[in-house]
Write a structure and sequence with these properties.
This protein is of the alpha+beta class and 105 residues long. The protein has 3 helices and 6 strands; from the N terminus they run H-E-E-E-E-H-E-H-E. A hairpin with a 5-residue loop joins strand 1 and strand 2. It is globular and about 35 Å long.
């Protein structure tokens, strides 16, 4: 992965921490234009499920955010699903979404 600027690297760290804390398949973090961050992991309930990125975007939206500057997803998957990318694009189609693998022990 190319060198990230410090604010984008912070998103990756937050996403990795969330994933590690819960043992979820994915962790994600998003940043709004004011620099606030929102972190989430995969949500899997009998009645519904959200990817980590969808959950992080939902957390931002429920806090009143009207735009996003960037997002990061920590996942074993080789790609980020279209619905997750669409959630970010709803706020900013130009926002970069970084996909990074989990750290190996």
């Amino acid at each position: 992965m190319a060198e990230l600027d410090p604010e984008d690297a912070k998103l990756v760290t937050l996403a990795r921490s969330a994933r590690a804390r819960t043992g979820a398949p994915e962790g994600a973090a998003v940043r709004d234009p004011d620099g606030r961050t929102y972190v989430a992991t995969t949500v899997s309930l009998p009645s519904f499920s959200l990817t980590a990125l969808q959950a992080a975007v939902a957390a931002a939206a429920s806090s009143g955010v009207t735009g996003l500057d960037a997002a990061a997803v920590v996942t074993e998957a080789g790609t980020i699903d279209a619905a997750s990318l669409a959630a970010v694009a709803d706020f900013n189609p130009a926002a970069p979404v970084f996909r990074v693998p989990p750290l190996r022990n």
